[in-house]
## 1
Amino acid sequence: MDFHSERDSAEVMKALEQGGALTKLLRTVVCESLPTIADLTIAIGILYWKFDIYVSLAMMFAFSIFIAAEIITSRYKVEPRRQFARAERQQARVMHQAIQGWTTVSYFNMFNFERKRFGKTVDAKLAADFTWGVRNFTLQGIVELIIPFTFFTLSAMAIRNISLGRSKPGDFTFLVQYWDYLIYPLIWLSHEYRDVMQYLIDAERLLALLQTKPAVVDKEGAYSIGAVDGHVRFENVQFCYDERKTTIKAVSICAKPGETIALVGATGAGKSTVSKLLLRFYDITSGRISIDDHDIRDITLDSLRNVIGVVPQDPLLFNGTILENLRYAKPSATFSDIISACQASAIHDRILSFPDGYKTKVGEQGVKLSGGEVQRLAVARVILKDPSILILDEATSAIDTHTESNIQRALDAFKNKRKRTSFVIAHRLSTIVGADQILVFDEGRIVERGTHEELVKYGGVYAQLWSKQTGTPDVVEEEEEGGK
Ligand SMILES: Nc1ncnc2c1ncn2[C@@H]1O[C@H](COP(=O)(O)OP(=O)(O)OP(=O)(O)O)[C@@H](O)[C@H]1O
């Protein structure tokens, strides 16, 4: 999560695409350079056979100068090429942002702004390409001047050999006639060197990405947790996204199997962060989180995420059919399992009302469905997954109260079926009155905890929230230990 929240997905995609240059690099080195070096060795051998060691040494000398000149001049080409690759990624980022956020672009009528922004990236890319082209071909021209010089030098040496009677005039004709073939491997090799440089620069970003170490990994000796009862404990947990600000402060939670723990509080108080910590999207700074007394850092990420089911705040559907999206939760699910899950989440009848039923395409990120329909599909998905621990993060916030109470009943039945431990994050307090524990968060701390009745009696933050939401007069401020 650390990785993805820091990076732009379009840039990562472009870097992966540019990384295709690695295949070309491998092909150039293995399939082309090695035969070219063999060709060059043969050319030097032929010169030695036709003339003498000096002519072949002159060719080798020219070869060394040529490659050295290529290496020296290549450093002047690196920066424009790097700028070009960077401009390409920037262009992909701007394009992706405008396409993905096209509704925002429309709402704010920013077509011209986006057009200009995109135009700027095209200009930057063309400018970088032009600089690269000019520098590349100028330097290439300078380097290739070595070729005629080599030809004249070798010709002079060959003529001298003939005048001394060491070679025949026919050998000179041979040199002239076959010159292109003799010099060809050299030119080819320098082109290959240039290509290799270019491919390496293009793939630079991918190589850097490949070297990025994930912040959260299985530790050595991590074991699979298997089936769990659902005891979840947070012990004095501390966490910060940024070292300068602590997001979760000394949080302790104890959830027994089958219990429902509700997390409430102002927006930004740290409720969703608690669920991300349980899923180990991030590692905590201090304290301990355990499931059935297994520290979650000791078990494999795979087995941890297997036992937890989440309905996130903004569920994401893939661009496919409703059926495909539901099956994603459990590829082995039968059609009747899927229907039962959809009935429980009060979406089955709605799906049947669509002309294509379960084969309806949901569009990118579920754009063809309403917010409430997406949420109900997300609930159906988690029912299909059948996890031991459930996290519902504002799972029914976009659903009307009538449908919500239907889903709530289905979710209660689902929770009780297997004594599932549930964490429910909610702003609408009416959905969590029956919770076994309600934890009230404020700026990363739990400031109140208890059942609904206890907290209302206590008359603190929760009681105020409750009275605001239900329109009942403020409860009498009564300090009750039971509420704390
Ligand atoms: N990836 C992140 N990087 C940095 N800060 C983050 C990140 N995610 C959340 N935060 C910050 O952490 C704090 C807690 O966020 P969190 O999402 O847990 O709040 P929340 O209580 O769930 O809010 P809401 O009710 O609005 O969903 C916020 O101040 C938020 O800006």
## 2
Amino acid sequence: MLNDVRYRWKSRTSFHLSVPTLDIAAGDTVLLLGESGSGKSTLLSLICGTILADSGQVAVAGTDLARLSGGSRDRFRAEQIGMIFQQFNLLPFGSVLDNIQLPLHFAPERRKRAGDTKTEAQALCTALSLPETVLASKAAALSVGQQQRVAVARALIGRPPVVIADEPTSALDANSQATFLDLLFDQVQRHGTTLLMVSHDPRLAERFDRVLRMEDIASIERRVA
Ligand SMILES: Nc1ncnc2c1ncn2[C@@H]1O[C@H](COP(=O)(O)OP(=O)(O)OP(=O)(O)O)[C@@H](O)[C@H]1O
């Protein structure tokens, strides 16, 4: 939930983002569309608490992010939010199991929910149609499509209530994209997870409960210093 939020990147070209109000209901799947440079990733960073609003309020699962100290905000993010990035951000020389377990190191509640983490990681891999023996493989040895599924398993382990995905399909071909989204949706719907996914591809819209367009929810301003 965002209220009257303003944020400015202070760089040579300063970029101002204002979001009057944005409310996402728990369990909704939401697609955020917008052109390159319209501030989609900036908005996701505000929601994840990796950057803090200059003014206004950003609340996730009822918690005002500005009220948390830096360390508790990092822990809150690890507990509450599973993240899938455009470039997957896997540790290439780590095993698939290491990669999937990574967020649990910073999130004791999430670790508890995951139970036996190896069994949970294996179950997620099976649900995501990854090969039986994948857990021991080095992440770098997998195909791009397989790496992206590992990134999904990492985001989903321990059932965080919110999953945020920043253009997760941009490195995949059309067939792999469709399979990837089927698997992701199957998982988030099974667990009632809130999904916020950024894309610039409007063809994905029909899969989602709600579609937001940056131009409708935010205003931006660029100034060259
Ligand atoms: N780390 C940063 N430091 C300074 N300015 C930044 C930073 N990240 C983004 N910006 C500024 O914010 C603007 C919006 O970028 P942002 O990445 O949020 O847009 P986007 O809609 O996600 O674009 P894309 O679809 O190309 O990823 C950029 O034009 C840039 O000027």
